[in-house]
């Protein structure tokens, strides 16, 4: 049932973990159903699956329907603006070059080492439509994967461009296993580079996992016109 709104202030000392895949608002269809004053049920459809929810009252049901619709409108508007920005960035001329050296991933989650006792870890690195991938590197309970892989990316927008890194364990007969992701904005790299005469070293924590860091060397060079 949909009762009182959740408050993080009342649960400040509690740690939560998502145990089911969240429903994306852009993929949800709301069925209003009956509109009588006593109706408290609302139904959501997602990927051909139906979910029935019960509000505390008909007024709460109306409020939930309104809030869901507002959120969906905001997501649609945000996605449209993001697509327009991406299309605009693709047509721009490069204003700089980012050279990175992906050194290693430390403290990668060792609790999920495969039965063979080792992993074949690789990284997918992207910025917009530009993508690179490291070769697989072995990781065991005692050693972390290391590459020292060099990559280059063209920078087109200092405020919008984001370097994204996803760490994966290669599966030969199964899907690749997700080991974490991280990102850094080009504007942050520019800020950190202002007091440095050469490449900077940065450790980025992995998200959506319990542990892990990516060690990078970053060298941002803007073209003379900038």
UniProtKB/TrEMBL annotation:
Record's keyword annotation contains Cytoplasm: yes
Gene3D superfamilies named in the record: C2 domain, Pleckstrin-homology domain (PH domain)/Phosphotyrosine-binding domain (PTB)
Any Pfam family the entry gives: C2
Location of this chain's protein in the cell: Cytoplasm
Cited SUPFAM superfamilies: C2 domain (Calcium/lipid-binding domain, CaLB), PH domain-like
One GO cellular component term: cytoplasm
Record GO biological process: positive regulation of Rho protein signal transduction
Assigned keywords, A-Z: Cytoplasm
Domain C2 stretches: 79-204
Protein name: C2 domain-containing protein
Species name: Cuerna arida
């Amino acid at each position: 049932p949909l009762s009182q709104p959740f408050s993080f202030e009342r649960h400040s000392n509690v740690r939560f973990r998502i145990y089911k895949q969240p429903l994306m608002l852009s993929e949800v269809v709301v069925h209003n159903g009956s509109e009588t004053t006593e109706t408290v049920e609302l139904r959501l459809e997602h990927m051909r699956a139906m979910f029935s929810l019960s509000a505390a009252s008909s007024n709460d049901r109306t409020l939930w329907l309104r809030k869901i619709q507002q959120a969906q409108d905001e997501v649609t508007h945000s996605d449209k603006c993001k697509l327009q920005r991406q299309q605009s960035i693709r047509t721009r001329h490069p204003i700089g070059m980012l050279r990175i050296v992906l050194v290693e991933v430390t403290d990668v989650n060792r609790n999920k080492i495969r039965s063979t006792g080792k992993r074949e870890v690789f990284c997918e690195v992207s910025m917009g439509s530009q993508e690179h991938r490291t070769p697989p590197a072995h990781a065991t309970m005692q050693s972390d994967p290391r590459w020292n892989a060099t990559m280059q990316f063209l920078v087109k927008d200092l405020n919008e461009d984001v370097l994204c890194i996803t760490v994966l364990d290669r599966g030969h007969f199964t899907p690749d296993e997700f080991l974490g992701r991280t990102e850094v904005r080009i504007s942050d790299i520019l800020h950190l580079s202002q007091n440095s005469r050469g490449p900077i070293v940065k450790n980025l924590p992995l998200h959506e996992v319990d542990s892990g860091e990516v060690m990078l060397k970053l060298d941002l060079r803007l073209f003379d016109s900038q």
